[in-house]
Amino acid sequence: MALGTSGLERTVGVPAGSLTGYQGGAALLWKMADLRGPSGLFITPGLMKGQMPSRGARWSGVSIRITVPAEPFGLDGIYRRIGRGMRLRSLAHPNGMMETILASHYTWSLCMQGLLALKAGDAQSALTLSSLAVYINNCLPEVADTRARALAGLGAYPDAIRWWNGALKLDPTGTYVDPYVGLARMAEKAGRWKEELDYLRLAALGGGARDDNGIRAGDQAMLAGNMVSARRQYLGTVARAVAARGMTQFQAGDFALASMTWEEALSLDQNMAGVMHSLGGLAAQEERFADAIMWFGRALEADPGSSGIRGSLEKAREGKTALARLPRSEALAMGQPDTATHWMTLGAVYWNIGRGRSAEDAYRKALAIDRLNAPAWTGLALALANQGRLEEGVRACEEGIRANPEHVDPALNLAAMLSDLGRKAEAERRLKEAWRAFPGNPRVAAAMRQAGMAVPKLGDRNRQAQ
Asked: Which of 52, 169, 360, 415 has its CA 20 to 30 A from that of 26?
């Protein structure tokens, strides 16, 4: 078993004569899964003797290469990927529910690979992957939608329309908007503008993050005969619903799927600065700084007044420079004596490229040498916050204040982290303490204004004492 860029790869030989048809294929998947570690199964297309298996096919004497994602996934991740578990076909297998879960996760993996193939312009591979997904589980609208997209990519429009209509039948609630969008695009391609608007309106009505104002504006434009405005309103409403789905996927840790969903939202509305900002943040998190700079730049064009996007762009540029200099920076840092300054230098190198865990380790080593080093406590707090460990970051800020109360950074970071944790009253109290400790400090004043607090006048002792 070798570790490659795509994860772990192994070839499995199927024992002769024992596994046949649908049940046999499902049993084979279960047999090959390793649920104690990474558990996302990917079967490389074209390796099953170059043919799609039929329900009566015999699985004997076939070698299948399995690619398992390098990032550990675990059972929690499998459960997270089942969006419509109650509609899954129950497979006849002694392990019952777990077999259903595994087949569902495997189906999602195939759809994911199909969408990636489409993104790369390989519609034929996408069709092969979606065919296998349909074979394993034909009860998910996402499976039918992926196949419809592949067929449309190959120019088989009537078949694509049939599969998108099939996807709608599999989703009676109408909340999965992608088939409506696909049908709208087919209508647009055929020049049937009224039909396109009808599908876009249905998509807007079914969106998970439904925007009634957008729908109402589109309806009013339709009544006024302004089809261009109606189309823009409906598209924007659908795009926001798709973007919200991407955020849900991102929060669940499904970053690759979130990225594709956000790009789908942008294909509907190219001016969504927040979505481009999110894509840039995801790229920066994965150290793809050139992509991050591109996305932040596009976001800034859509929203030139956003200081947050501008700050993200500057940080991505710094990250790109730091990453290019990383080998030399590490070598220089390692060449220094084993002092707190040495480890703080290395921590700053890792922090600049977003490697929070490496930065944390470096700052902890600095503090092991000098516990009263307030900048090291600040660096540790930020590194912990970078990993989402805000409570630990709060404690590090408090240690920094105790270590050296003359530094303002720990106090400001403490207030910011408390605010992010939803502890607004405590954050405001800490900012008032910071103002008393650093009267007139412009950074403290700016933080107070951002928090919606009044900044006391320097001569007003009564207000400062509150």
From this structure: 169
The token duo for 358 is 């490496």
The C-alpha angle with vertex 265 and arms to 207 and 114, in degrees rounded to 5, equals: 100
The pLDDT of residue 58:
36
Per-residue pLDDT at 1: 24
- Yes or no: say if 185 and 207 are a contact pair by the CB < 8 Å rule: no
**Domain-wise residue ranges, the chain:** 1-154, 336-464
Helix%, strand%, coil% for the chain, nearest 5: 65, 5, 30
Q: Tell me the one-letter amino acid at 77.
A: G
* pTM exceeding the 0.85 threshold for the entire prediction: no
CA distance 227 to 371: 67
- Residue, of 220 and 108, whose pLDDT is higher: 220
Chain centre distance of CA 201: 27
Give the CATH fold of the 336-464 domain: 1.25.40
Task: Tell how strand 7-13 and strand 63-68 pair up.
Answer: antiparallel
pLDDT digits 0-9 by tens, 343-391: 888 888 888 777 888 889 999 999 999 988 888 999 999 888 878 788 9
H helices within 21-136, ranges in order?
A: 21-32, 74-80, 97-119, 123-136
Q: pLDDT tens digits for 19-45?
A: 333 334 444 443 443 322 233 333 333
Contact 349, 368 (CB under 8 A): no
Q: Which residues pair with 253 in a beta bridge?
A: none
Contact 384, 393 (CB under 8 A): yes
Contact between 197 and 181 under an 8 Å Cβ cutoff? The reply is no
